[in-house]
Structures are given as C-alpha cells and as structure tokens.
Amino acid sequence: IEHFTYLGLFVILMLCGLGLPMPEDVALLVGGFLAHKGVTRYPITLIVALLGVIAGDNSLYFMGRGVGSNLLSYFGLKRAGAENQLDRMHAFMHRHGHLAIFYARFFPGFRALVYLSAGSFRVPTSRFFFYDLAGAAISVPVVVTLGYVFGEQLEQVIRFIGVFNKLIWVVVSLCGLILLTRYLVLRYWYSGAKT
User: How far apart, in whole angstroms, are the C-alpha atoms of residue 92 and residue 126?
Assistant: First the structure.
C-alpha cells in the first residue's frame, strides 16, 4: 500500500496539473496528512509531490509547444489584424515570462493558462523548468507540511487555504485596477498635453 500511495499521489498531482477538476492543494494536503498518519514517509512524500507537480506543469508546457499554433488560432490571435497583439504577447513572454511562470505557481486558476502560453510562445525549456521548479520548491513543501503538521485539523487548513487564495486574488485585482487607473490617467494627461 505504501508504494501505491506514492504512485497515486504522483499521478493525481500530474493530472491536477493537466486540468483534473480537483485543487492541487487538496492533493498536497492529503499527501501531508498521509505522512502525518504514518502511511507514508514525510521526506519521500515531499519528493513525490514535487515530482508530480513538476510533471503536470511540464506536460502543460509541452502541450502548449505542440499545439501552440492551434491554441493561438482558437483564441483568435492568428487572424488577420491580430499580429500586433500577438507580437506584444510574444515580447511579454520573452521579457517577463519567467516571472509569470514563477508567480503562476501560486495562482491555481491562472496557472494552466500561463504554462500553455509559455509553451505556445516558445519560452526556452530550460527557463520554464527553472522558474517552475523555483515556484514549486516553495509552494509544495509549504502545503505538504501544513497537511503533515495540522493533520488532525485538515478541514480548517483547507478552508484557510481557500480564504488565502481569495485574498491573493483580491490583492492582485486591486493592483490591476491601480495599474489600469494609472495607465488611463497618464494616457488622458498625454493626450491633453498634445492638444
């Protein structure tokens, strides 16, 4: 049962990365909980969880590389007149893609889109792997350890993580609103200065 548990954890985390309708954090918490109960060993659970998460993320990345052109067509970015938008997105991914890859690890709903885009826009594989691994090396041990330390209060930990994720989205939304307001004010100011 110990070997199946590790394999099961790996497969579930890889499938979560590919879009299984189950939060990855719940699988990581359960992995920590199993270590808490003594079903698995904590260090091995950490390694298996990290490998499962990385395998899922890299699968999405290579899926984006394989079907990138079709994906861009699906979102309407390969049609006539969209070349400028496509060029801006390509430049963004090559200039700031490493940060997007790193930070996407902490935003469950945003992660798949960033990783598919990184593959579609041909972000170098080594860069993707490094920044994905850096983000996973922070997030995976934290969540597995929460499941391990607070095994008896697992439901409260899951609720706490849900509230924390919502708080992060609120902060990101506020930052986006501030940047948009700044952009619009500067645009209005520059257009007023030209006339």
Answer: 18
